[in-house]
Amino acid sequence: MKITESQIDFNNLLVAYFSMEIGIDSKLPTYSGGLGILAGDTLRSAADLELPVIGITLLYNKGYFRQIINEHGDQIEEHVDWNPNNYLNPLPNKVSIKIEGRDVKIKAWLYRLNGITGKVNPIIFLDTDLPENSDYDKTITHHLYGNDDHYRLAQEIILGIGGVRVLESLGCTNLKKYHMNEGHSALLTLELCRRESKNKMQKAREKCVFTTHTPVPAGHDQFEKHLVENMLGDFITPEIKGGIFINNKLNMTYLGLRFSRFVNGVAKKHGEVSRSMFPGYHIESITNGIHSYFWTAEPFRKLFDKYLPGWECDPFNLRYVLGVPKEEIWKAHLKSKKKLVSFVNKKYKLDMDSETFTIGFARRSATYKRGDMLFSDIDRLLKIAENSKGLQIIYAGKAHPKDWEGKQVIKRIIEAMRSVKHKIKVCYIENYDIDIAKFLVSGVDIWLNNPLRPKEASGTSGMKAAHNGIPHFSILDGWWLEGHIENVTGWSIGSHPSASKHSTHEEEVEDLYSKLEYIIIPKFYNERDSWIEIMRHSIAINGSFFNTHRMVQQYVLNAYFK
Ligand SMILES: *Cc1c(COP(=O)(O)O)cnc(C)c1O
């Protein structure tokens, strides 16, 4: 049933949330990884909490790619054909924007996001694939993170400037805040300035909230001054020209920083790292979360419904899981594990089983995440498996099409997988997406994460696992610095960042193996009771806090309405 547009009162919306990607459903291939999933979870929680928030992003007519891994371990990328008409409603509103002197028209599509209490919040997808646009301009909203700087800047112009214009045309006249989820949408600040008659910058600044996500300087988008001037023409007025270029570049992070009254990093540690990267700016932190109900699998949803009624509206209730009988925790876990095991067995003709200790690792394949770390010393891993009652490993994750190194990591995992074949069952699930993530974060026994410090701004999949009672085993970086209690919510790998001497890669590999061998695997097989105690604490201590309901409430109190 199509709900009529009149049910959304654009005039009453107070916050516009801008993100280059929004992951709302695996059928809408408009996201690539953590940033998009966070945006989707944030908007879901806002709707559940009945907050008047509108999301805004690009449509990506060609989707993010479908991943196939061939017999050599190479990633093959395929276009995703999808029909926006099946999920979104085209809106009659069109706005235009001048890029390189051409008038580029933008059309808006509406997605209705249903909150748990029936509140419907809008998400707007911007689309330039229109007959009246030039061939090039039609492609601007085709690919997520595709092509060159010119293409990327065109996309950011559509998102930031086009986004503000579309909101206006929809009748969003009471917006109090414009929240930039990462710097991609930061051009919106200039459009807001342009609309003011005096004290432009100060007035725009009052309305802007900026969340930075990248703890490495190279990860921040920047564009050459001449490219920006060519593309935006007289939009770059003499008035702003003097203030936005640094070393002849437009750095989107600095734009967000300078024009926002509230700026935050996505975990306490990331706030610190950001403050040292951008001295002189006031940067707070609001630690990320995930949407509790969305990421909790059916068996645990039922268990929580039985013992913790109301948990889905108020995930703080998850702290009371400590009173739920251990047998029931284990039963719920086994149900999800069996589902995952039968999924991989069927799809890849394997013979995994639901008794064997199973490690999960799934993320975008970027080199700093060190996806193949577990295979650093294959003989050692084989020995660990041999000396225990068995070991299974399940991987997933796409590499960006242009990330050759990331693809090599996948290739090395596939090669290692072959070499341990008869002793350890390993599976690499292709085409990691929201649906596969749901299987994985509920169906393995432990969630492994071993990024290179301090590159993990937050990380979120360990939070999804925690909601399903799955302990976390990770480098002390990002959110894990806040969620880690050794032997209570999981285990650390390597040194604490406050230690006088930081662990090296080799020491971290050693720690990974020895904890698996001497602490984690023996506990799993021989001390089931104490293992389930850790499962309960993962939910009680980490599920109850690392969720987007808590996170959105912090944005409301500290950033939106302060
Ligand atoms: C949660 C999720 C991510 C992000 O995981 P991180 O641990 O934050 O890197 C990426 N892709 C999918 C499909 C996810 O569900």
Q: How would you sum up this structure in a few lines?
A:
This protein is an alpha/beta fold and 562 residues long. Helix content is 40%, strand content 18%. Bound molecules: pyridoxal-5'-phosphate.
Oligomer: single chain
Secondary-structure arrangement, i.e. CATH architecture of the largest domain: 3-Layer(aba) Sandwich
Structural class comes to alpha/beta
Radius of gyration: 24 Å
The ligands found in this model are: pyridoxal-5'-phosphate
CATH topology of the largest domain: Rossmann fold
CATH C-level name of the largest domain: Alpha Beta
- Helix content class: 25-40%
- Overall average residue pLDDT: 96
Q: What portion of the residues fall into strands of 2 or more residues?
A: 15-25%
Shape descriptor: globular
**What is the count of β-strands?**
20
How far is the first residue's CA from the last residue's CA? Answer: 39 Å
**What strand line-up does the widest sheet have?**
5-6-7-2-1-8-9-13-14
List the helices and strands and how they pair.
Layout: E1 15-19, H1 34-48, E2 53-58, E3 66-69, E4 75-78, E5 89-99, E6 102-114, E7 120-127, H2 135-138, H3 149-170, E8 177-181, H4 188-195, H5 200-206, E9 208-211, E10 222-224, H6 225-232, H7 238-244, E11 245-246, E12 249-251, H8 252-258, E13 262-265, H9 268-277, E14 284-285, H10 292-295, H11 298-307, H12 326-348, E15 357-362, H13 378-386, E16 391-396, H14 404-419, E17 425-429, H15 434-443, E18 446-449, H16 461-467, E19 472-475, H17 480-483, E20 490-493, H18 505-526, H19 528-543, H20 548-560
Parallel strand pairs: 1-2, 1-8, 2-7, 8-9, 9-13, 13-14, 15-16, 15-18, 16-17, 18-19, 19-20
Antiparallel strand pairs: 3-4, 5-6, 6-7, 10-12, 11-12
Bound molecules: pyridoxal-5'-phosphate (PLP).
